[in-house]
Design goal:
The protein is mainly alpha-helical. It has four domains: about 180 residues, no CATH class; about 80 residues, no CATH class; about 70 residues, Roll (Membrane-bound Lytic Murein Transglycosylase D, Chain A), CATH 3.10.350.10; about 45 residues, Roll (Membrane-bound Lytic Murein Transglycosylase D, Chain A). About 45% of the residues lie in helices and about 10% in strands. The protein is built from 20 helices and eight strands. The strands form four sheets. A two-stranded antiparallel sheet has the order 1-4. α4 packs across α7 and α12 runs antiparallel to α15. The chain is globular, with a radius of gyration of 26 Å. It starts with a helix and ends with a strand.
């Protein structure tokens, strides 16, 4: 009777979704409860795929109520699933765990939660550090798809070894092993997720059902009229690495090798400020494989140019005056039990003095439920990189009668221009044009010969 009631609720929600959006009934093929249950059994592997009204409601959400979200996931599926599959196979773990990142982050490598969890696998700062993911103002390895995936696999495997059950391991990944142990005790020491379900935190009660629902959805796309041909999918770029020491400006590096900076960001989303800081040692910068030979052949020239742009501007952003909101975006954080200003400041890469100024606090005292304004600098990405643009106005070049000039085109660098003319070096171009750096812009006129 109860099951039938929830099925009717699910059908009602489906028809409401159709009424609210301009959909046709053909987009929502009728799928009976028992058919969904049978389909899940067909794809079940090492992790039990329980089916019930709660899971059906999430399947309806992903296939009907928010199809756009599901399409956004599908756009990045081929970008990250190969990374997950390789890491899971290496450790002998169930392949189905690759779907967990969808529940965590929607397959967005720069996802940041309101409590400070970050990356594809939503590591909290302390948990990330405990699994070797370094975090600083410039670099956050929680957003590195390869490093974070390896850490997530190690963490999930340790949780499985702790509980001996993959569903409980997933629950512990969401809420922590302490809360799962508490739920086990309160249930009378039951052994499975669904037996301790009612004793878990509310968020965790939805966590495993979403995981199961997403497995179903991505395995039965055709049956729910998702057309992959209509979705622009992203694919991983075949890449190599070049090791960088010291400061390196990402966009300048890209321009030197005629590379779209968005491709460099895609391979290195953990460079959250668009640069490596001073003191960096052997940072493995990922670059497209077809550029590796060129970069290695001209390494010193390319890195020399990339080491001179934007350093002072980024240092200012990192160390600006207390309370400044320059280049930052406001977030509102609600204080939780156990929070102190120091841990909140560390979580958001701001200073305690900033928090106090932004919120007119005269002391370090805060209370549970209090709302704090936090001004954070957005992470460097293809959408936010404009906030990090370094304006470099070249010195005017005197017109030389009879001189030969080159009009800079999009994607060109001093190195590529020097290869177009005989007996022309980068240093000679700089000297002729009074350039103090290798940064040039499309449309700029360069004196090549007098």
């Amino acid at each position: 009777m109860v099951k039938r009631f929830f099925i009717l609720l699910g059908l009602l929600a489906t028809f409401q979704a159709i009424a609210q959006k301009d959909y046709t009934l053909d987009q929502f093929p009728e799928v009976h409860y028992e058919l969904m249950e049978d389909r899940l059994k067909c794809v079940e592997g090492n992790i039990p795929l329980e089916f019930n009204a709660r899971i059906k409601s999430f399947i309806d959400y992903f296939t009907i109520r928010d199809r756009e979200y599901t399409k956004s996931v599908l756009a990045n599926q081929q970008l990250f699933f190969p990374i997950f599959e390789k890491a899971l196979a290496k450790r002998g773990m169930p392949d189905e765990l690759k779907y967990l990142s969808i529940v965590e982050s929607g397959l967005r490598p720069n996802a940041m939660s309101r409590v400070g969890a970050a990356g594809l696998w939503q590591f909290m700062p302390a948990t990330g550090r405990s699994f070797g993911l370094s975090q600083s103002w410039y670099i956050d390895e929680r957003m590195d798809p390869w490093e974070a995936t390896d850490a997530a696999c190690r963490y999930l495997k340790s949780l499985y070894n702790m509980f001996g059950d993959w569903e409980l391991a997933l629950a512990a990944y969401n809420t922590g092993p302490g809360n799962v142990r508490k739920a086990i005790r309160r249930s009378g020491y039951k052994k499975t997720f669904w037996e301790i379900y009612r004793y878990l935190p509310r968020e965790t009660r939805s966590y495993v059902p979403q995981f199961v629902a997403m497995i179903y959805t991505l395995n039965y796309l055709d049956e729910h009229n998702f057309n992959l041909d209509e979705i622009e999918q992203n694919y991983q770029i075949e890449h190599d690495t070049v090791h960088v020491n010291g400061y390196m400006h990402m966009e300048t590096f890209a321009s030197q090798v005629n590379l779209c900076v968005d491709d460099l960001i895609l391979l290195n989303p953990h460079l959250i400020r668009g640069a490596t800081p001073d003191g960096t040692s052997n940072f493995a910068l990922r670059i497209p494989a077809d550029l590796a030979e060129e970069v290695r052949s001209n390494r010193s020239t390319i890195l020399d140019s990339a080491s001179k742009v934007g350093r002072k501007e980024l240092e200012y952003l990192a160390r600006n005056s207390p309370g400044s909101t320059y280049g930052r975006t406001r977030q509102v954080y609600r204080v939780r039990s156990g929070d102190v200003l120091g841990t909140i400041a560390q979580r958001y890469h701001v200073r305690v003095s900033d928090l106090k100024r932004w919120n007119n606090l005269r002391s370090h005292m805060i209370r549970v439920g209090q709302r704090l304004n936090i001004w954070t600098l957005p992470h460097y990405s293809s959408k936010t990189k404009e906030r990090y643009v370094v304006k470099n106005v070249p010195r005017p070049v005197p017109v030389v009668t009879g001189g030969t000039y080159h009009l800079v085109k999009s994607g060109e660098s001093l190195w590529s221009i020097s290869k177009l003319y005989e007996d022309l070096s980068i240093e000679k171009i700089k000297k002729l044009n009074n350039l103090t750096s290798s940064n040039i812009k499309p449309g700029q006129k360069l004196l090549i010969n007098m």
